[in-house]
């Protein structure tokens, strides 16, 4: 019996957003799917801020709002540039976001992933937890034909293996399908969950019902390293965290824990967390190398989706939606080939990449392909000098101290010229504009 | 031979949280695990299966989600899983639980053969009573062997089992007639890792699910809250006993260091010295 049954139409490695999206889509279309997860249960290894972007999930499970554990829908986005004692903010809040089908929510991944995985099982996929894929099984031509796990026994076979194994991509690496992830292409983020009564959160952030606020911050909080801080409101808790590029951390400016402590103690953040109780601490890697860091995505019998494919838009703090979208499209590609009875080789699976090109995933990553390099080359300027200059300028401008406005204006312009020179300023503006277009 | 292992799904106490506002235990989102003590019982059953070719049934009473724990038991190598679930069982204390489980065990006996051995863990980590195992044994009139550290021999033909039992005064070697209920002590074995074939089979397996009437329970007043004379009057968090740790500094040989530690302890708790002296004298007399 075992001999026959150890063959599936597809094997999905990993049970994060991309793996779940892929396994769900495949199973829903009637393919026999085996999903293998190394964690104790689906989601046990997963960490995220976390924001859920509705659109990507809606395309997979349209009715998710009725069942998925969601915390608050986001009605306000705050973008902060911070120096050591202040922040300059751009806030956007809109009643329009109280729509019938809100476009993003804060979520707690532990609960959300449990739900998503239950949907995968419901759709008919076989989910195997506490099992680590140790290597891909290849035939004589190098074509991937199955996986071997850390459990005793025979390999499991499938014409296609979807690698949704997350940022580290160890299986792909060990099997020689991809290089080791470069420290310049990956951020290390740490976060804490702070519990606060519902009413306190709502009063503190001016919220009603399930409305939520998102704060994204950059500036001296990362001590000249490329990175950002964040604060999200959940139903009865606040997620607060900070992350920087790993190669920057390696230079030893500060540890992630130190950055988080300082961020929480910042006069703009501390009052928001006052009286809260820390209940969880988590850390995770985020692939932030962008378009240029995307590894080979398909080959004979294999496809890469989600973080394993570097599908994160670091500029917009989007990742899980790219993960779900790539997972879904990989699955749709496989379903189409399966129906036509075509082989799943490097040539036919290229269809996945073509389909991705047509979506926001590749379009956005392409648009920002210059950003990671630009930030890395100018990190002390963008994450130190400018936030300081903005804050000083604001303070000069808003402080009423008997100095006339013309003099203030001059002082502000001088402060910018002194620290960046006119050429530097124009150069920065040009470089940003070029990287942004 | 047929062996039944009773397992319980419990919240992972390492990850449990107390709600900071209401001070109640937050069960939502807390991962559940198989009661760790039950794993020693299950592994011991699987070892008997390896040795004697027994078939192993895992039995669990709990909410429908407890099927996850049963599936895990299958992954380890159990042959069959039975979930006993009914809303009438909610709020069961040890009396009601052992009643429901013994009814299920009787039904298991009818369907799959009377078990020669029923295993349970020493106790659960959420209830800590250690009463359910013995409760089942007395209801089903099984010989009971509690706190067992080792199964020494199983003679099926003679219907006899020999075990080691850890007692306060030492290790007892006990033999009794089958059928028997064994509560297994912790750290007596190490749970195996199921093979890939077992894991796949477990993922596919149907969990046999029975409710109260399926196992022949007619009198529902014996079940759940109504059948439970135990009343939880109050739940509270213990106040922390925070005593500052003392650093004892000592130089010299190991003996000198040991003496310094003992002296410091006696100085702090004079009663300890008297007790130890009295005990030592008692042993020598």
From TrEMBL, chain A:
SUPFAM superfamilies the UniProt entry points to: FAD-linked reductases, C-terminal domain, FAD/NAD(P)-binding domain
Pfam family, one: FAD_oxidored
Cofactor: FAD
Domain (FixC-like C-terminal): residue spans on this chain: 372-437
InterPro entries linked: FAD/NAD-bd_sf (IPR036188), FixC-like (IPR039651), FixC-like_C (IPR059103)
Keywords assigned: FAD, Flavoprotein, Oxidoreductase
Annotated TM spans: none
Protein task: Part of an electron transfer system. Could be required for the formation of a functional nitrogenase Fe protein. Probably accepts electrons from FixA/FixB and reduces a quinone.
Family statement drawn from the similarity comment of this UniProt entry: Belongs to the ETF-QO/FixC family.
Protein name per its UniProtKB record: Protein FixC
């Amino acid at each position: 019996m075992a001999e026959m049954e150890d063959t599936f139409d597809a094997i999905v490695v990993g049970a994060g957003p991309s793996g779940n999206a892929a396994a769900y889509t495949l199973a829903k279309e009637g393919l026999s799917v085996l999903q293998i997860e190394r964690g104790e249960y689906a989601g046990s290894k997963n960490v995220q801020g976390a924001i859920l972007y509705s659109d990507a999930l809606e395309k997979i499970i349209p009715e998710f709002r009725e069942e998925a554990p969601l915390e608050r829908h986001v009605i306000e986005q705050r973008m902060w540039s911070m120096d050591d004692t202040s922040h300059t903010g751009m806030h956007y809040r809109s009643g329009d976001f109280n729509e019938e089908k809100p476009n993003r929510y804060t979520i707690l991944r532990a609960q959300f992933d449990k739900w998503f995985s239950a949907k995968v099982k419901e759709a008919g996929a076989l989910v195997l937890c506490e099992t680590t894929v140790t290597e891909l099984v290849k035939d004589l031509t190098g074509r991937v034909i199955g996986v071997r796990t850390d459990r005793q026994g025979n390999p499991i076979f499938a014409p296609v293996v979807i690698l949704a194994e997350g940022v580290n991509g160890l299986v792909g690496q060990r099997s020689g399908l991809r290089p080791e992830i470069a420290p310049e292409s990956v951020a290390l983020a740490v976060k804490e969950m702070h519990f606060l009564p519902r009413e306190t959160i709502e009063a503190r952030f001016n919220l009603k019902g399930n409305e939520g606020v998102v704060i994204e911050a950059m500036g001296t909080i990362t001590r000249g390293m490329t990175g950002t801080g964040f604060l999200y409101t959940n139903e009865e808790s606040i997620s607060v965290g900070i992350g920087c590029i790993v190669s920057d951390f390696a230079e030893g400016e500060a540890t992630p824990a130190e950055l988080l402590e300082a961020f929480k103690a910042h006069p703009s953040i501390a009052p928001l967390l006052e009286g809260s109780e820390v209940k969880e601490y988590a850390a995770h890697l985020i692939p932030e190398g962008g378009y240029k860091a995307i590894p080979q995505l398909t080959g004979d019998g294999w496809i890469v989706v989600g973080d394993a494919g570097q599908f994160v838009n670091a500029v917009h703090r989007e990742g899980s939606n790219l993960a779900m979208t790539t997972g879904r499209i990989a699955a749709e590609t496989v379903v189409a080939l399966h129906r036509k009875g075509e082989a799943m080789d490097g040539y036919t699976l290229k269809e996945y990449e073509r389909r991705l090109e047509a979506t926001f995933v590749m379009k956005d990553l392409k648009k920002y392909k210059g950003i990671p390099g630009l930030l890395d080359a100018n990190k002390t300027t963008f994450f130190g000098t400018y936030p300081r200059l903005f804050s000083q300028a604001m303070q000069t401008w808003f402080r009423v101290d008997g100095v006339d406005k013309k003099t203030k204006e001059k002082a502000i312009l001088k402060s910018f010229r002194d620290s960046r020179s006119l050429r530097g300023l124009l150069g920065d503006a040009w470089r940003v504009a070029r990287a942004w277009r | 031979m047929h062996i039944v292992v009773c397992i319980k799904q419990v919240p992972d106490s390492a990850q449990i949280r107390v709600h900071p506002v209401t001070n109640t235990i937050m069960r939502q989102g807390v991962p559940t695990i198989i009661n760790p003590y039950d794993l020693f019982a299950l592994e011991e059953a699987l070892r008997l299966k390896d040795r004697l070719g027994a078939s192993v049934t895992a039995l669990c009473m709990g909410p429908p989600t407890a099927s996850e724990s049963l599936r895990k038991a299958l992954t380890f190598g159990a042959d069959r899983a039975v979930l006993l679930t009914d809303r009438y069982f909610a709020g069961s204390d040890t009396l009601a639980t052992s009643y429901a489980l013994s009814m299920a065990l009787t039904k298991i006996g009818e369907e799959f053969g009377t078990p020669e051995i029923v295993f349970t863990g020493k106790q659960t980590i959420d209830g800590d009573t250690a009463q359910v195992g013995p409760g089942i044994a007395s209801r089903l009139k099984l010989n009971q062997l509690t706190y067992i550290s080792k199964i020494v021999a199983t003679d099926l033909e003679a219907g006899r089992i020999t075990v080691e039992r850890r007692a306060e005064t030492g290790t007892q070697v006990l033999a009794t007639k089958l059928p028997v209920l064994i509560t297994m002590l912790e750290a007596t074995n190490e749970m195996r890792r199921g093979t890939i074939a077992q894991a796949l089979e477990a993922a596919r397996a149907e969990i046999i699910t029975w409710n109260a009437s399926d196992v022949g329970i007619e009198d529902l007043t014996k079940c759940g809250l109504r059948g439970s004379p135990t009343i939880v009057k109050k739940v509270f968090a213990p106040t922390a006993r925070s005593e500052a740790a003392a650093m004892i500094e000592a130089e010299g040989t190991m003996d000198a260091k040991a003496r310094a530690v003992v002296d410091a302890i006696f100085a702090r708790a004079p009663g300890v010295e008297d007790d130890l002296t009295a005990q030592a004298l008692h042993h020598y007399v």
